[in-house]
Amino acid sequence: MSSRKRPWHRGLSVLAGLSVSARVGAIGLVFVLCVVAFASGVVTSERPELAEDSWIAWIYYAGGLFVFGGLDLGLPAGGTWPGRAALWIAYFLAPTVTTTAVAEALLKLVRPRWFQLRRLQDHLVVVGDGKIASLYVDGIRSLDPERPILSVARQKTGPPPPGVELLEGDISEAATLAATQLERAAGLVVVTDDDLVNLEVAWRAQGEEADLPIAMHVADLSLLRPVARLETEAPAPSGFNTHRIVASYLYQTRLAIHFDETAQQDVVVLAGLGRFGQTILETLLGEAVDELDQVVIVDPDASTQLRKFGEDATEPGVRITALDLDVTDPLTWDTVESTLDAGRATPVYVLCGPDVVVNLRTGMLLRGRSEEPTIFVRCFDRSPFASSLAKQQSFDLLAFETVLREALREHYHEFFRSRPRG
Description:
Elements: H1 7-15, H2 20-39, E1 43-44, H3 55-68, E2 76-77, H4 81-110, H5 112-117, E3 124-127, H6 131-143, E4 149-153, E5 164-168, H7 174-179, E6 187-190, H8 195-208, E7 214-217, H9 221-230, E8 238-240, H10 242-261, E9 266-271, H11 275-287, E10 292-298, H12 302-311, E11 319-323, H13 330-339, E12 348-351, H14 356-369, E13 374-379, H15 384-393, E14 396-399, H16 400-417
Parallel strand pairs: 3-4, 3-6, 4-5, 6-7, 7-8, 9-10, 9-12, 10-11, 12-13, 13-14
Antiparallel strand pairs: 1-2
Helix pairs in contact: 1-4, 2-3, 2-4, 3-4, 6-16, 10-11, 10-16, 14-15
């Protein structure tokens, strides 16, 4: 394992590594050794009368060893050889204890946060200050409540949960990464909102701690696909995508069941082709080609996004129509209906844009046109308002938080708990 500490930091770290209990024990041992030595007749070259002094004087001189060592007493002389050996041990042990205390005080001044975190051991480092990071920490706490967690965030948003240490800083900076104590960690998960930061930090950490289990969130599918190919190399961090998690959940629990119940090939209309929409499309093309007749994509930038998607995706085995239209415009849905084959299956609408308000408005617009279609509306959490509106309008909420909470628990269980370090 490598270390990024400067040489003088490394030296201070070693000196300050003595625990409080060990230091107290060493202090007591120095006094015992001195009293035993003086009681056995040992004196020093500068204090030949030591053996005749009281035990109070012996304790006084023993305390002086922590400041001056044996410099003001001189060399041990007389008495028995075990007594002299005991005094020599005290001569070396006392200044060592003093030096570690000074080193600890210096570390508190020059690296105060490192000093607080230095006793972390077998901890999991979670990098990110968004909702995904928060849900991941919740998942660890529910499955592994005794696991120490170090949460790394750019800014403190509130007190951390019990059992979670907080480190404020930019994980892209070497000093912040060094403060996470990866050499003693059980694993690292990087879930910031910046894919490039996640990838760079994960690969840098893997290069320094080859046996450390590392996972990073990659939201962009065009980046995630080559990352998946790189995972065949050893060692390499493992990428995961929350959109894929939710898309897989939607397909397995809703769409696949719907497709099985219809006799005809189905039609799916995707409103929005952002990252989540692309993930839904990828899932459909990978899992349900034989079940689908047509996929219609409605997005102001649908054609461009579809071309980008096609550059790194397999050739679809289903008819795809891209409409560069505004999903909130009622005329858009007249155009959509004109592209659908008459007499075919009733389309399934998946409103998967990033703006929850737009999704809800579009869901109400579609429901006002017809009561037949199945409509899925993407949102982050199942709020009381969204739930009430969905019930009134008869569309199905796809709440990210509900799915992610369980999925991230499973990711922690499968990735980190099943592959201990080393």
